[in-house]
Amino acid sequence: MTKEPLTIALPKGRLFEQVQDFFSQKGLNFQFEKRKLVSFDDEGLLKIYLVKNSDLPAYVNSGIAGLGICGDDVVYESGLDFYKIRTFNFGGTRLSMAALENRDEKSDQKELTIATSYTAMTRDYFHSKGIPVNIIRLNGSVELAPSLGLAPYIVDLVETGSTLKANGLEVIQDLMTIKVRMISNRAYFKLNYDRIQNLLERIGENKS
Amino acid sequence: MSQQLRVPQGTESFFLEEAVRHKDILGQLENLYRLWGYMPVQTPMVDFFDSYSELLDKKRQDESYRMISREGDLLILRSDITLFLARQMALILEEEHLPVRVFYSDSILRYQNHEDISHNEFFQTGCELIGRKGISGDLEIIMLLHDQLSALKLPAFRIHIGSRSLFRRLLSLYGKVDKEMELARLLDMRDYDGLCEYLPAKAADLLFFIGTIGEFEKTTESLTPELKEGLKDELVLFKQLAEQLVKTGREDNFRIDISEIGGQPYYTGFVFQAYMEGADRAIASGGRYDDLFGRFGRDVTSVGFSLLLRKIEKLLDHPSAAKPGRTDGRDKDFAEQYREATERRGRGEPVSIG
After folding, report:
1. Tell me: the pLDDT tens digits for B143-164?
2. Where are the domains of chain B?
3. Less Cβ around it within 10 Å: N or C end of chain B?
4. What DSSP string describes A95-119?
5. A187/B280 Cβ within 8 A
């Protein structure tokens, strides 16, 4: 089989920096020239594509990138299936439900109305509990929805909770823990399992 | 206008050079089936959904197009020829004709997300060896698939062989038979920690094994005594299969892959999938399903494979079809051109008139 570098998609933004630092600790160094979205590590083991977080599953699903690193939320919302071949100890977060701190509990309806960007996870979570939900899809600034009266509840990724607090919101309950994983296209994994195994042994962390 | 530009998800048309190429490749495959002694069969486009509902997992059911017949029966459009074939063959099989070797090539309909460009699951070709028990039947089908892929001159391919029966035996060993679906799902995701919640780490390690025949032999030697003893019969089968593959001299194209357990619950023995560089999913899959015909009222064994042809056509280095020549229509009337074209066609040259 080919000895081309393994192809991997990494998400732009804060998670990229964490991945870059982590790989650097393992001796795998890479940089991106300004405005460039393709790079190689110093040893030529990896060909790295820098992509938008939510687009990452599409690249891995098509096999253009054989590997990818992203959160559970990104995979879940894509609706696509991948091998989850490593779990990282960094970048984890929670998917939580929040509402206004000074909300009127009496106004709660039988059917929950929730504003969120994570529609699939939110729907499936509440349906698994037998609770009907009315979901309003938003693509950002979800914290505004309760104070502007769009929806009494939101579901969003929460790390420190400071953004929620700044908007007068509090966490009501955590829905699920989100971990950062290395995912793989299945066929790519099968054809390159020995080289991927070497990479996984080098970077360590949990087996899945 | 927009309605005219759309086509239902899961369908496709292809034309001209692409269609010629498809027919050429298919012809090559069908010729090889015939050389191996397999006979063609044709399955119906629709059948009763209830006949198959228990044999299709939720994903495959979701991908299938269903409709109501004029009599009110729920019908399913052909989404997997293996199942349609098993039901049809079960109706006509004669005991004295066994083993029966058949092949099929036809369109299938599976829903695919319009945003997912990678499926290309529109056309299935494959074969069934019905009524041949044991490893000789498995080997025949595996080597036929190997020869088909070799003949197509694929860039590089490997056939990964696993076993549903070894998987089930492993579950039985640890009292997890009732968790088969859950453990199959975890294995399908390569969720090692999830598997270890049900099985000892050594058992999970074995389920994760992918390697050459030689590497598998070494791995089996280092298994715990409990696994060695509990899986003894299954490991003997793998050993016999491996010995024969090595004897064929083609073992480089095979990997033992215990994580392969067959995508559908009807598999009962060896299972396999073929992968090639450039294809984002397995291009062929198959295995033994000795209970499948029993579901349709015939107690007869079967082993086979199916190949998703459209998935690989674009990746093949197949010569483009030569454009047909033309008769000169300037100085000749139709009859003269017809005679000229007939003469040239007689020499094997494709010729259009005018």
Report:
1. 999 999 999 988 889 999 999 9
2. 1-156+277-321, 167-255, 326-354
3. N
4. EEEEEETT--GGG--SSEEEEES-H
5. yes
